[in-house]
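Notes, p. 3: input format for complexes.
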Amino acid sequence: MSEKLYKCECCHREFDEEEYQMTLDKNKCIFHCRKNLNNNWLVNEIYEKNYHLQDDYENAKVRWNQHYIRLFWKKFIDDLSVQQNDIEIENYIFPIYWILQYQHDSILNTIKDKKIRFNNCVFLDYIFLENQKIEKVEIKRFSFINGCKFKKSINFDGLNFIDGITILNSNFENKLNFFNCNFNYLFEIVNSCLNELNLINIKTQKSIEINYNLEKSFNLNIYSVNINELKISGNNLNDLMFQSSKIKKLHIDDNHHKLINYIFNKIEISEKSEIDNLILDNVKVNEYLLLDTYLKEKSTMIKSKFAKTFFNNIKFSGITDFSEAEFSDNVNFKLCLFGEVLFRKTKFLKGLDFSNSSFYKRNIFLGIEVNTTNRETARIIKNSFEQQNNIIEANKFYALEMKEREKELSWKNDFFEKLIFSFHGLSSNHSQNWLLPIFWIVFFGLLNSYFQPLNFYTMNYVDVLYKEFFVGL
Ligand SMILES: [Zn+2]
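Output follows (473 residues plus zinc ion):
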């Protein structure tokens, strides 16, 4: 008598009694069955109370039925190895996967050179697909599409994706990490729900696109990467951090109709990052940090709005464009070196400080609005206008420079200089107000005539007119 066989309603694969004992579901195979405490896949619940406190990798291992897990991955490898290179995996429910368990090397060997599409799969626990050898393992292509769900962190480490990777309409409840991976083709994450995305030590000659991931706000951390082009467009992004990274073209925007008036919490570029082309397209940022960074060719931050800013040790080489940008808090460009820079119609609603910056090329300040500044900053802006023969604008900043100089002087230590500056300010607002000197001439003229003794014999009719009119005689 032949052994009783069951048939999976998802993949129509027949399975035997032994497999049925693991699934406890006559209509679901080992790949498609639910995996929980009831059918003995789990020893401890994944989502117990206060779980986050002890939710680490080591704890995760022991909550699974080790025997079942081993069998699952063995069957998975066996199944993949007999398939063609283009594989579709649909509606699978995956248990935990971690390194050096379940014939780890063989899984990397099996998926090597294959294109695998995960369609609407659930990953219940950690997936750590890691290659610890120096030489990267080549994978043709991975796609996660159509509602894949990742309940815990997923790590890809030491892999070389020949044809890139696509993540589309998927849900990550925890971290998505790529460490030490290369992408020889497009790497894209589109229309997905992310929690935290970490790209660490990544190399790509092509582009990475992170677009329209809107469902939940997420953080993006990029460390020590070498990327040709990175486009971050229309995402519900909270914090965005780049450290020690080389990027040829970096484009960040909030271009999605669901993100009207969207404000990024923080954008940080730091730790010797080098960016050839930086485009911040009309974005609003609560905290914008540029620290120890080299912006090589072109940086445009046109029409962007920044609240708090921290600029320190930045080389703005090439062309930098802050046109029509708005800074609502004090801005101090500390130790910044500017090439050609445009501050056309830029608004500094509080203070602006260039006193620790150097400008070595043409700079445009036309239409700049500055609330308060220091003398050196006013002098730099004045010099720029003078070089362009814009005397009217230059004079405005000359007056500002003089006012700031006057503030620096004290009556105690610089009495005469302070006196001269005060007099200059009082008499003509540092040559800016031509009505003021006229006012003073008329004022003193009147004062003089008021105190002159009344002598009708020597008075001419103009004197009489004045006295009648102003003094009421
Ligand atoms: Zn099945």
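The mean pLDDT is 88.
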